[in-house]
Fold GntR family transcriptional regulator.
Amino acid sequence: MIELIAGAVEDRSARGIAAALGRLVSTGSLPAGARLPTVRDVARSLGVSPTTVSEAWHSLARAGAIRTRGRSGTFVADRPARPVGHRFAQLGAAAVGAHDLSTGVPDHDLLPDLTDALKRLGDGRLTAGYLDAPVLPALEEVLRSRWPFRPDRMTVVDGALDALDRVIDAVVHFGDHVIVENPAFPPLLDLLQTVGATVLGVPMDAGGMLPDELRRVLTGHPAVAVFLQPRAHNPTGSSLTSERAAGLAAVLGDFPTVTVVEDDHAGDIATAAPVSLGAFLPARTVHVAGFAKSHGPDLRLAAIGGPASVISAVADRRHLGPGWSSRLLQAVLLDLLTDPIAVGQVAEARDVYAARRAALLTGLRERGVTASAADGINLWMAVDDQQIAMVSLAARGIAVAPGAPFCVTPLPADHVRVTAGLVAEGVDALADALAAAAILDSRGSGTRARPHPRGWR
């Protein structure tokens, strides 16, 4: 077996060893239950230090590929059932009440009207052959004019999560270290867990991921990718400033093998200006532009732009599956992005969402509750006890999302996520209910009497 492992290892770093052994496990070359050689034997065979092999083993154990049984040795783990949507599923675990604020979806009444766009499609003859370019030329021209940096190549896929899934498939392998914001979007964490990546969270504040903390994590754990939400961060609502983006880019400049993946999911309903690390690191930045929250979830469209090596890998792989995203829907999106009436409707929605966030945030702060909702459609609220808060709100017919699935590592305080963008009326009553659930008195019951001292950093 040791010859098999040694022959599979090309990169003798801890990451390379973990990736090589991970491939042997996933292909069945190392069957479930097989006992692995000792760390010292593998290190001797590869000509590396035992510490390097130990780090690789630790990554594989965290990913669930191997199991250590004390003095009995280390074994290839039985193939576990995939935790499909494990974190994501928890977001909908709360009982849906009369006021469901757990969803994180836009207000349907604030989406642009598709009627005129559909009428203008004509006969819909937009495909000449199966190897046509995946993006309508006119749509690509508009997307490029909106892009925060000049990408080598662009493609369109079936929504932002599809984009993240396909980019992960292109740049992340079993055992790789990947860095995300803490808190992060639960489906992203699920996707990374599915491919066996080791996920590391970096703390953030109102300006985004903290550069010094990013450097500290990268120094201790060489990573292949950093995933960011540059605007309207879900769940906190924070957005990168130009200064923060420059600071993060400066750190990443010292780690030239790290790919940056940006999920700009809020798009045109975000109030913050578009900021991208691609302005500093264009050859290493993959930017995802989503249109679900601004133009409609059922369009199922998102654009990806960045280095040709990544975008070509995504586009080429899609030729063996769906091939392309519906050019009919692409034509609808093109119309919505260029029609003055639709553009005005999206701008109005952006203003309405901002007003709804501000009203609820003000109401909570007046009641002594710590929360953040600087942009987007969500509000991130600190609570004394997540479970008690959710049960208390459910009793009032209000559903919110638990904060725990967003956290890579626990935060100093419990939180819940509230879809503030859906709160069109009854703000005072809702703020009363949220505050009563958030802050507990000494007997464990809700109160609005004292300020809440803890934030989400």
About this structure: The radius of gyration is 24 Å. Confidence is low (pLDDT under 50) at residues 80-85, 447-457. The domain at 2-76 is CATH 1.10.10.10 (Arc Repressor Mutant, subunit A).
